[in-house]
């Protein structure tokens, strides 16, 4: 099992404690504060229900899957080269945490919440103002590509550094989805690291979520067993990127 370890802040942001995802159990919720939450261990599958294979993912192509709730979208991405390791990050409230790095043989597989922490822009089936801009492509949000860009107000995030903010008004990194790649190359989501915006999102988009899922409880349902994972360009009709 190829695991991404991570660190958790305890007691107001001064003490960093290493935690292995293999040790994640419910009791850690209570002990370890708010910046890591274990959810169901969920396998990423394609639209036919077959496991997504790490080796088959094309580099620099963003995929979308919903986790840990039925309506909360995330990016899955293989970056162009290996990611950094043990990146120190800071949430909006000043709490520090450490993102351990990408997973997979080439340490290039990452997953982040696709809900922008500035004003909650996110991909929808109709359009997406947030996307990954490949290396070599231009964006108004940053001096070069290889970044996740929210084109609503031009925030840029570094996918190789825990989605650290590189520019724009975003107040904190995108929350990271903690993923693992097993020996078969199958991919699993196990939790969320960082400050997420799930509850703001549920509150702000209640009417839309109600309409789409017919029931807000369905939108807030915890994902179990598997999560359908599709390329962003198939998930949404239009990608808007500046
Ligand atoms: S909502 Fe993403 S930058 Fe404003």
UniProtKB/TrEMBL annotation:
Residues 73-182 form the Rieske domain. Pfam families: Rieske (PF00355). It comes from Nitratiruptor tergarcus DSM 16512. PANTHER family: CYTOCHROME B-C1 COMPLEX SUBUNIT RIESKE, MITOCHONDRIAL (PTHR10134). The keyword Iron applies. GO terms for molecular function: 2 iron, 2 sulfur cluster binding; metal ion binding. This is Rieske Fe-S protein. PROSITE patterns: RIESKE. Keywords: 2Fe-2S, Disulfide bond, Iron, Iron-sulfur, Metal-binding.
């Amino acid at each position: 099992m190829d695991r991404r370890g991570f660190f958790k802040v305890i007691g107001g942001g001064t003490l960093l404690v290493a935690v292995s995802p293999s040790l994640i159990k419910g009791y850690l919720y209570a002990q370890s504060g708010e910046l890591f939450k274990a959810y169901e261990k969920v396998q990423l599958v394609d639209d036919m229900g077959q496991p997504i294979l790490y080796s088959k993912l094309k580099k620099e192509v963003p995929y979308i899957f919903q986790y840990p709730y039925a309506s909360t979208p995330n990016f899955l991405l293989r970056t162009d080269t290996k990611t950094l390791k043990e990146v120190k990050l800071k949430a909006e409230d000043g709490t520090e945490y450490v993102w351990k790095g990408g997973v997979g043989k080439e340490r290039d597989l990452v997953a982040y919440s696709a809900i922008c922490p500035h004003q909650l822009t996110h991909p929808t089936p109709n359009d997406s103002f947030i996307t990954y801009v490949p290396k070599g492509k231009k964006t108004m949000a940053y001096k070069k590509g290889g970044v996740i860009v929210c084109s609503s107000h031009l925030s840029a995030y570094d996918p190789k550094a825990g989605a650290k903010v590189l520019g724009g008004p975003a107040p904190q990194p995108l929350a990271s989805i903690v993923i693992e790649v097993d020996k078969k190359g199958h991919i699993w989501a196990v939790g969320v690291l960082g400050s997420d915006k799930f509850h703001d999102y549920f509150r702000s988009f209640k009417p839309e979520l109600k309409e789409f899922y017919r029931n807000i409880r369905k939108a807030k349902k915890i994902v179990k067993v598997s999560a359908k994972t599709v390329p962003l360009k198939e998930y949404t009709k239009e990608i808007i990127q500046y």
